[in-house]
Amino acid sequence: ASVVSQDEREAGLRMLLNFGHTLGHAVESLAHYRGVLHGEAVAMGMAFAARRSEQLGLARAGTAARLVALLTRLGLPSELPRHPRRAYLAALSVDKKKRDARIRFVALRGIGQAETVPLLPSEILLPEVR
Asked: Which candidate, 8, 33, 70, 89, has a CA 20 to 30 Å from the CA of 82?
């Protein structure tokens, strides 16, 4: 509530609350909003974002493993469902955080330290990343 009241228009700080939602919403969309709870989809997206943050050189190696271990202890999934890359890219193309062609992807610098990074959908989901 404190973050929302400080940034009612989601122009800065509040964007960080979208951590995990970029891929999480894609997972929900590809599942046709059935069989995957929102929190589960966001957990998958959080794990993906942590891994991608490491690949981008933003987060230290081991950050994603630490987050995945926590999600696992909580009984939450951390792997994206198997869908074709093109299906994920299509789902990402309608992301609400998209400005021009880029999505303001919430990436980690470390546990509890996030920032937005403008990326094309194809930069978020690389061909070899899944």
From this structure: 70
Kindly write down the DSSP assignment for every residue of the chain, as one continuous string: -HHHHH-TT-SSGGGGGGTTHHHHHHHHHHTTTSSS-HHHHHHHHHHHHHHHHHHTTSS-TTHHHHHHHHHHHTT---S-----HHHHHHHHTT-TTEETTEEEEEEEEETTEEEEEEE-HHHHS-TT--
Q: What is the pTM assigned to this prediction? A: 0.87
**Tokens 């930069």, located at residue:** 123
Residue 18: pLDDT over 80: yes
> How far is residue 7 from each of residues 15, 33, 59, 103, 106, measured CA to CA in Å?
9, 29, 25, 19, 16
First-to-final CA distance of the chain:
33
